[in-house]
Design goal:
Length: 416
């Protein structure tokens, strides 16, 4: 008698994985990966050796004697770094270490929303945030973006519409510093305008700042949480902004260490939802030891490395796609948001490109209104080496020309 184990699975599961992972595509323009050369292996090795020799016995207890919020020296570093780089006044007691920013997203969603609630997200945004809301059955609506981020006029319209409908917005999800996928940075005056609207309509802001350390200039604006702090203190209320950060982009994705910064009444309610017995302790210990001496210099080097890759990506797009590829050069981060001419379907392009070892993110997966964004694609340049960027984009242009007639002409490199 045949045994069908899938018949015992519960209903409502996501689609199964396509196949066991074998290797990255030859030309990998997806995911938030770094390249191997950007990982500070020597410094991390030395940090691991030192901290284990000094504090290894603390691994005998859950929480490393620092409690459920995470390793205290790492929280102390985060508080200091965020004060100096983003103007934040939070102490280590207002920080919770999470297993990457994805766990932070899950915890905040669990805290705030259910199927009867409403969320506003940027019209182009992190696909993982949208899939998590969808999985919870939480409705969301997209707010327009321009070169400076969220359009305050459209945001005001959406907030008012939701109030009239009797379904006020619980929170606004925004990536203001190195927006994903556009790579833009929201100016301070725009941040203040968004905060004013959130106050007027009594909703929270979830500020996802995972790429903020990778601004090319090295100077990032004050976080929205920092900007709300003076008013919160003067009015005797909690800060309206819940903040999320990560070391995945600034040090190494596989470390899986992120953090939430919020007032204690928020963290006190999030902690019971974090039922994993704590984020990996060794990762926290090594990171704290590494960061106190090396984080600033490492990030400076990483910015330069990524900016060089970005320039190569832009040059390759211009050479191989010409004016058929429209984009705004990003101000930091690891990706470029590209618009191709009408008639190109990037979901189909991704399928055809995958057959030839090229991986891209179709625009439909990174936008609230996916069907309206089938001419867009996100290209991540963090993982491929410079030669792979040049060759991969040339080959992608050739496939696009073959399938859609775009660009009209292709360089010799794409015809090999």
């Amino acid at each position: 008698m045949a045994f069908d184990v899938s018949a015992l699975f519960r209903s409502g599961l996501p689609a199964p994985a396509a196949a066991p992972f074998k290797a990255f595509p030859a030309y990998n323009f997806v995911g938030g990966h770094n390249d191997g050369g950007s990982i500070p292996v020597q410094e991390l090795t030395e940090a691991a050796t030192r901290v284990l020799a000094r504090e290894g016995t603390s691994l005998a207890t859950y929480g490393l004697t620092s409690g459920p919020q995470g390793y205290r020296p790492l929280r102390d570093f985060i508080a200091g770094w965020m004060h100096d780089s983003a103007g934040m006044q939070d102490s280590a007691d207002e920080i919770l270490i999470t297993s990457g920013s994805l766990q932070a997203l899950d915890l905040v969603n669990q805290l705030l929303v259910g199927p009867e609630d409403m969320v506003i997200a940027e019209e182009a945004t992190y696909g993982g945030a949208l899939t998590r809301l969808a999985r919870l059955g939480v409705p969301y609506v997209g707010v327009r973006l321009d070169a400076d981020g969220i359009d305050p006029t459209h945001l005001a319209e959406l907030l008012e519409e939701q109030e009239r409908a009797g379904k006020p917005v619980k929170f606004i999800y925004t990536i203001p510093t190195v927006q994903n996928p556009t790579g833009g940075v929201m100016p301070v005056d725009r941040r203040r305008a968004i905060l004013d609207l959130a106050a007027r309509h009594n909703c929270l802001i979830f500020e996802d700042d995972c790429y903020a350390d990778l601004v090319w200039s090295g100077t990032r604006p004050p976080s929205m949480r920092a900007l709300d702090a003076p008013a919160a203190q003067a009015e005797g209320r909690p800060n309206r902004v819940i903040y999320c950060g990560s070391f995945s982009k600034s040090v190494a994705p596989a470390l899986r260490v992120g953090f939430i910064m919020a007032d204690w009444p928020v963290l006190a309610q999030i902690l019971p939802l974090k039922t994993d017995a704590g984020t990996g302790a060794l990762e926290q210990m090594v990171l704290a030891e590494f960061c106190k001496d090396h984080f600033a210099s490492h990030v400076n080097r990483l910015r330069a490395r990524l900016k060089a890759k970005c320039d190569i990506t832009i040059a390759a797009l211009e050479e191989n796609f010409g004016t058929a590829a429209e984009f705004t050069p990003p101000l930091g981060g690891i990706f470029i948001w590209v618009t191709l001419p009408d008639g190109v379907n990037t979901t189909r392009l991704a399928t055809e490109a995958a057959k030839e070892g090229i991986a891209i993110n179709p625009g439909a997966e990174w936008t609230v209104d996916g069907p309206d964004n089938t001419t867009r694609m996100r290209l991540c340049f963090g993982h491929p080496e410079e030669a792979e960027i040049r060759e991969g984009i040339a080959r992608l242009a050739g496939i696009c020309h073959r399938e859609f007639g775009v660009p009209e002409r292709i360089s010799n490199a794409t015809q090999s």
